[in-house]
Structure formats: C-alpha cells, structure tokens
Amino acid sequence: MDNSLNIMIVSDDEALMSQLMTIAETKADRVIGVKSKDAVREMNRDIVHIVIFVDTDSDTSVEIVQMLKVINQNALILFIANESDFSLLRNTTRAGVDEFYVFPEESGLFSSRFPNTVKSYAAKKAASEESKTLSFGRGRGKIISFYSGKGGSGCSLLSSTFAQTMKLESSAEVILIDLNGQYGGVETLLSIESNRSLADLMPVIDELNENHIRNVSQTQEHSQMEVLISPCDAEVLETLNDEFIARLLRTCRRTFDYVVVDLPSTINELVVTAMEESDKIYYVLTPDTPSLKILKQYEELCERLGLLLSSRMEIALNKLSKDYEVKQKDLKNVLRYPVVASIRQDTKGLQPFINQGIPVRKLAKERKMIPFAKDVRKFAREVAKQ
Ligand SMILES: Nc1ncnc2c1ncn2[C@@H]1O[C@H](COP(=O)(O)OP(=O)(O)OP(=O)(O)O)[C@@H](O)[C@H]1O
Ligand SMILES: [Mg+2]
To answer: What global pTM score does this model have?
Structure first.
C-alpha cells in the first residue's frame, strides 16, 4: 500500500512559498507548490493529502478551501493567515480547515508542530486504509488530450482508436470527448448519429454529475466506451466557456479512468483550458518540415500563454512511411519532447474503415489487425503501464 503523502502548498507569495517548501520537503517526497487560482485544478489532478494554504489577498480563500474539501474530504488543511482575524478563523474552520496559524508570529510554532501533524495524519491514513481492505476503488482518472497545430494530422482518428483500444484491452472506464465543433470528427469515424452533444450539459453544469454525462454520451456499440460528441455548430461550441470545460473534464475524471479528448487545431480559450486540465497532451506530429514548423510555433505560443508543457507534452508520430525513416531518427534529435508513439502510414488498411465509418477496433482479441491498429495498441499499452 502506498503510504507516501502528497503535500500541496498554495501561496501567491513567492517568499512564503519557498519558506514553506523547505519545511514540507523534509517530511514528504512529493510536495507541489501552486498559486491559489490553480489550487482546485491541482487538487483534482492527483490525490493531495495535506494542503498548506496561505490566505489570498482577494477574499477567495474560504471558497477555495471549501472546494478543496469537496474534492477530498479527507485532506488535512493547514491555513496560514497574515493577520489574526477572528471572522476569518471562524469561516475557514467552517469550510474545513484543521489548523490555523498567523504568520509571521506563529511561523516558529508551525515548523515545530508540522512534523507531528504529518506523522499523526499518516498514522490515521494507514489505519483507515487497513480497515477498508482494498476498497479504495478507482483512483482519479487521467485526462489525455490529442492535439496538433496542423489540421489533418490524424488527431481524431488517433484519439478515437486510442480510446477504443484502452477500453477493449483493459477493464478501464473510458470516455472520448470531441471538442472539434465541426462535422467530420469522431462522430463520422464511429458513425454516431445523435442529436445530443456535450452542449446539452450546459443547463446542468453547476451540478454536473455522472448521470448527466451518461445521459448525453453515446455508448459505442463495439468497444462500449462512452463518447461525448461536440455540437456540430461552431457557434454553439463558442458559447461554452472555459469554466464549462473545466467542470466537464473534472467530473469525467472522477467517473472514468481515461478521459480522452480530441482537440481542434485552432487555439482558443476552450482548447487552452482543456490543455491546462490535461495530465498528458499527445501532440500528433507527421514527419515533414511544415509540421515541425507549426510545432515550434505552438511551443512559442504556449510559452506566451504561460501554459507549462514540459511535464505533460509528448509526441505521437503519425503517418510514418519508408521515405521518412531516416528522418525519424533526426526528428528525435530536434524534438524537445519525448516520442511516445510511432504510427505507420496505413492508407490501405484504414481505407475500408474510414469509408464505411466503422471503428478500427471492435474486439478485445482481434484476429486480423491492420498495421495502424497494431501501432496504436503498442502506444496504448505503453500509456496503460504509466
Ligand atoms: N497513420 C495513418 N495512415 C494513413 N492515413 C491516416 C493515418 N492517420 C490519419 N490518416 C488519415 O488522415 C486524415 C485526417 O485524419 P483525422 O481526421 O484523424 O485528422 P485530424 O487531425 O483530426 O484532422 P482535422 O484537422 O480535420 O480535425 C484521414 O483521412 C485519416 O484517415
Ligand atoms: Mg479532427
């Protein structure tokens, strides 16, 4: 059983952040530091056991603490205020704060008590895990996005085949979400005809739960994965804001093991939010010079947007053919991100599937698999191991 603790420090003040980091890092292997605006997102991403929360300047603390508690009610929350304020103490305690300190006066007290706080939390956690005997069920699902700055690289085909493979070859719960907002995406590849789309979740977004999602999603008949199609009308898609996408993805993460997202090439607020929420972004790259140029532009854009890619972006090479074989080795030298998949060009194998709109994978043990499906399987197995 995993007894290690994850600690998250939430602070908008850099000096305080580094001070707290130093204290926390002596007691846990995994300590992350985030700004208050990112706290809820990070809490959703991974199980956080102990949160050290520094009061924000903008009266948002109580609200954020409440949300963190909803995500993990067992999390221990240590609150650090910068002045002693009785109503703040009362409100944060009500929101679920376990210990309250006023800095800088009580920073000494905090560091001396911290080791014991961690120790007793770890003991409590171990005891409750023992009594529950493996009833921990599913953990937090992973959000995996497929993106390419260049249209036609194979994002839709790859993401949908990846999702089918994951569902067929494991016991994982999988949902495929299409955010393209146009015809010719996932619904065409899977011959899904439906008048329901993820935009139908708009009215219930504030209370979104698993049932809402399953009511709108389609179960793909062969693989039994769930599919949420995008509204075909780009204008409708535009009415969905970043808050909507964040909530949708977070709710899916709690229900499904893998949330596979097919992103359009155009970057907008919605796409950026989906990328921010993602654990992994697989950039679909075809081995040619224009694609490499577009990848470079994408990297620069992300830097400007403050979107951190280093820990989550990986490259899926698609449409590899003999003519490019030498280049593939060169590619690995110029790319700044690891290559996780190499998928062959397989026009002949894919043709009947694309033309008839049938999914590339139908059975767990397929008798004859086309090269494309084999390469995707290898990719999916690699991801499943992580
Ligand atoms: N490995 C491959 N071998 C042969 N053809 C492929 C391969 N991957 C994708 N294709 C073909 O490339 C075309 C574009 O694929 P797809 O629609 O998945 O790309 P996309 O990146 O989603 O494009 P869009 O920008 O339109 O969303 C399709 O006709 C598809 O069949
Ligand atoms: Mg597409």
So the answer is: 0.76
